[in-house]
Amino acid sequence: MATDADPTLAAVPPLPARMVNEYVYCPRLAYLMWVQQEWTDSAETVDGQYVHRQVDRPGGVLPDEPLPEGERIHARSVTLESATLGVIAKLDLVEAEGLRATPVDYKRGRRPHAARGPHAPERVQLALQGLLLREHGFECREGVIWYAGSRERVPVTLDEDLVTEARSAVAGLRALATAGRLPPPLDDSPKCPRCALVGICLPDETARLRGGDLAPRPLAVADDPAQLLFVQAPYARIGRDGETLTVEIEREPAKPVRLIDVSQLVLHGNVSLSAPALHELMARDIPVSWHSHGGWFLGHTIGTGHRNVELRSAQYRASFDEAACLRLARGLVEAKIANARTLLRRNWKQGSAPPALLAALKDDIATARTAPSLASLLGVEGAAAARYFGVFAELLNPAPAADGGYSFDFRTRNRRPPADPVNALLSFAYALLTRTLTVTLTAVGFDAYRGFYHQPRYGRPALALDVMEPFRPLIADSVVLQVINNGEVRPRDFVRAGGGVALKPEARKALVLAFERRLAHEVTHPLFGYRVAYRRLLEIQARLLGRHLLGELPDYPNFTTR
After folding, report:
1. What pLDDT digit, counting tens, does each position of 406-449 carry?
2. Nearest to 332 by CA among 434, 456, 470
3. Helix, strand, coil fractions of the chain, as percent rounded to 5
4. 17 near 89, Cβ under 8 Å?
5. What is the pTM of this model?
6. Measured between alpha carbons, how far is 501 from 420 in angstroms, rounded to an integer?
């Protein structure tokens, strides 16, 4: 039991009573929310915010002295803190009369018909609120929980057993926070599917990768209706007007776009963004990505960023460990070659892919698995890439007659600048994938610029380039094949500039749309068995990488298609 003399009181900031509630419900959930600062909203949490809308507005004043006999007051949104308890809480409502005060806690659901009334997490949270009121000189013998779903007030007696349970929960959460180790997930618990953080916690996936027998339950994560806003018109100006962004293009009326409909803002070329618009985007955690005229990904702008220092510390430690870097890099390259081999096997136009080519790539996979150094691994990757791009033209429809001076007659991979339309499409698709993973990794809590395989260099998101290796064939190359073979992009949609070939705005638009469709495409996860969209899959892989770096998973499970 923690006391005034307990040094952990000074080592850990005051614990919010709500986090103690989460600890009683699930220690892993409390650790994710309190220590790693993870959070995401669900339909239930949004509904809870709506239920709390009135009591979240401060009103009334909690008196410093006893009230006259018979006088009662109601104080809303009252924050109290105790150095003795090491707890802080915002009380939804306090009903005070004389020396007696009663905390009223608002809950969104219906009253549970259980033997002890409210569930243990709710009772413990209410008990801590009562203890805080006692610390501030009030008598507090009971609390009340208001269930909005059934519109019922349920009293809870703050007896010694409940107080002891609450104090033990505080001590348990404080010990968990100072230990600095993520607790294991609940084992096949019915709580998990309804938890707002199930997509962050990944309880079933973690258990499976640690040797569990049960198949993971499909992730029931709501789709975000917001979409990417891509602006490429020369000299376009983006501002803010209330709850909308305004996109102004020369000689055209301003186009409004609701902020709630925007998931990301991608700016291409000389597009300007006003400070008020940027401030609002950062406040809403909507990332802004910047691309050059040629399509190169320059960087992205976010707000204060993710606060999971624990994850970044683990990332930095591993990035300076040569053995850890080599182990991760081997898996990334192995998965990249395997997925490239699968793409060739599935998309070969005339007949089937040559067995000798497939066998050579299989040998490359085995060689990558045992590469003795990063330098030798680069050589293996380069040899496999030469085989792959040497036959990439066999995946394209027969080249049509030259259209506008160009054709899709691909010979070899080149870049900086790309010398032909196919290479221009590949470079732009890789830039889009780099941007997507940079945003995803940053949102998860990583430093996207410190990698394991790609060496750090100023302005290069090395970790994003690492994680994207297995997905180059599956997402970027696949999108390029799609827009060419389906006729969405034609040879006349390119222009020669700066010694290379660049995409015209029509080609960029077509590729961006195809890329977004690909991210929304669902695939069956080979390890977990459920179907998941590529966009969600990238986040899952990023979180699994974090679990590995934090020591929860023995290996990072790379994604390979069958």
Report:
1. 668 888 888 778 888 899 999 999 999 999 999 999 989 999 99
2. 470
3. 45, 20, 40
4. yes
5. 0.86
6. 6
